[in-house]
Amino acid sequence: MKVAVGQFVVGPVWQENAATCVSLMAQAAGKGADLLVLPEAVLARSDTDPDMSVKSAQTLDGGYVQQLRAESRKNEMTTVLTLHVPTRDGRAANTLLAIRGGEIVANYRKVHLYDAFSVQESRLVDAGASQAPLIKVAGMNVGLMTCYDLRFPDMALSLALSGAEVLVLPAAWLKGPHKEAHWATLLAARALDTTCYMVASGECGNKNIGQSRIIDPLGVTVAAAAEVPDLIFAEINTERVAAVRQMLPVLLNRRFAPPQML
């Protein structure tokens, strides 16, 4: 499978952000990508208004998603990203979408809300109640996670035990002391915990680190971006997953069951 990861600076005008997503989709598909992962909360963002993304929330039949679905109809590439979808009284759900062939083939409401490092995502965002189902892309089983989910190894493990070979993660990882190190360490750790590929997109800009990564099942980074807008690619395959799992059978050697997921 050829995977692509795009990162960009999400701005306050949703039409411009949608156009950027459409452009990245066209570029990735043009280079033969089967899977494209874009950042978290790509609808709208402002450095001066932390609530902009929720205030700009759109329904799944709104203009933003319709533009992405229209671009998606041009090929069979799967695109994964998140945006905010309104729920009730000025609140929203941070919703991951997997779009292929013009259709939403899976969606997932972020379970672990970012109530940490002096941020309280739950103030305006409603948490999801269940783990996302696996999706099949180019013959590989793909598990879906969002940003702060990365800090919860039981979720990644649950996806791997359900059959995931690839874990994808749209994110908007905030800058701060040690945060770049946390990002790199946790991505490698989740790959090693699960012997899955990790395909992670990080929004870049004044407040977020960017640093998208594609990491193989032995925790080795095979493609990476820096802090500026970029589109990176890598070839991944199920044979590599099988070889690593034969060499490092951590999923089989477990002595304790993971906690029950929601």
Automatic annotation (TrEMBL):
GO terms for molecular function: hydrolase activity. It comes from Cedecea neteri. Keywords: Hydrolase. InterPro entries: C-N_Hydrolase, C-N_Hydrolase_sf, De_GSH_amidase, UPF0012_CS. Belongs to the carbon-nitrogen hydrolase superfamily. NIT1/NIT2 family. The keyword Hydrolase applies. PANTHER family: DEAMINATED GLUTATHIONE AMIDASE, NITRILASE-RELATED. It comes from the Bacteria. Residues 1-238 form the CN hydrolase domain. This is Hydrolase.
